[in-house]
Fold:
Amino acid sequence: MAFYTSLMDKIPAYTGLSPAAFFTILAMMVAVYLLVCGMFVDPEELKKHEKNLNPVASFPAPNPVELGDMTEEELMTYNGSDSTKPLLMAIKGQIYDVTMSRMFYGPGGPYAMFAGRDASRALALMSFDPKDLTGNIEGLDPSELEVLQDWEYKFMEKYKKVGNLITKKASAEDSTNGDEKDASKEDQAREIQDLSQDLNSSAETQAGKM
Structure:
């Protein structure tokens, strides 16, 4: 307390200013100093500081890779829970890589519930209700479909399409059709082989008679 009183007494003697005026001027000088330092800070140092504050931003997202057709169950594995996989989301059956916006669609993000799903209905209704996290858009009115269309345009402009969403039934049918085609080819090959053997046998018989 004695030091403070002594300091207050010496300020007018050395500066000719009242203590209030002295501290006001001192505060203004400090503010100007900080402002000037901020104007001439090294940009590289500033970038390093920003990266330290946001370590995720310092690791750019890998380039999107075409993944092809996948079922809803397969799409769910790309919901951000596995950091080694890209972050995917579907609109109207079209799958987009949204890894570059992980801060929004990744775990903890405001739209994390949309990741790994076809969120067409939820986007059209601007809904966060889990029951609307589906690609079923039946019953939507024209205005809601227009909202969904706007979302689709935004995704087409910003994100790369990496595949199509298919139903498990369609996938199974494709597999069955493929098996049937393979079986048909095998049957045709056997018929050709049998016919060739018959022709050879007939030719040998005729040659023996001659």
User: Anything to note?
Assistant: The radius of gyration is 36 Å. The chain has two domains: 2-57, 68-168. The CA atoms of residues 42 and 48 lie 10 Å apart.
